[in-house]
Amino acid sequence: MKMSRKHKTIVYILLGLFSLYFLMPFVWVILSALKTQTEVFSFPPKIFPDVPQWGNFRDAWNSQPFGRYFMNSVLVTVMTTLGQLISCSLVAYGFTRYDFKYKNILFILLLSTMMIPWDVTMIPLYMEFN
């Protein structure tokens, strides 16, 4: 179905408004990070800071070892991605190249376990490791 130019314009305007709606909390956080403490807690709230406090970012970065935290996150993310890539590639190769009994049932079981939300398995996993 081909959309008319008027219909496309309306859709793009609505998409732009929704984008602004969902981006506003991020903009508010960045603008609040540039304010002084009194400006952050003032009522009514001020949208823009009087004088941007760029030193707030430096102070926050130096208050904790964020460089170490960042490297830990990168290490965990890269290793998890590599592990997933290797294990999923091996399983996919097995399902693709080999015909074996109960292949379809195992594939459905594999897909169904991937559909379980992480929130459901979080508490049993915690209890297992605890």
Overview of this structure, please?
It is built from six helices and no strands. With 130 residues, it is mainly alpha-helical. The longest helix has 32 residues, at 66-97. It is flat. The mean pLDDT is 91.
Which features characterize this protein?
flat; 130 residues; mainly alpha
Brief synopsis:
The protein is an all-alpha fold. It is 75% helix and 0% strand.
Radius of gyration: 25 Å
Number of helical segments with 4 or more residues: 6
Amino-to-carboxy terminus distance:
56 Å
Structural class: mainly alpha
What is the fold's blueprint, element by element?
Elements: H1 5-33, H2 37-40, H3 55-63, H4 66-97, H5 103-114, H6 118-129
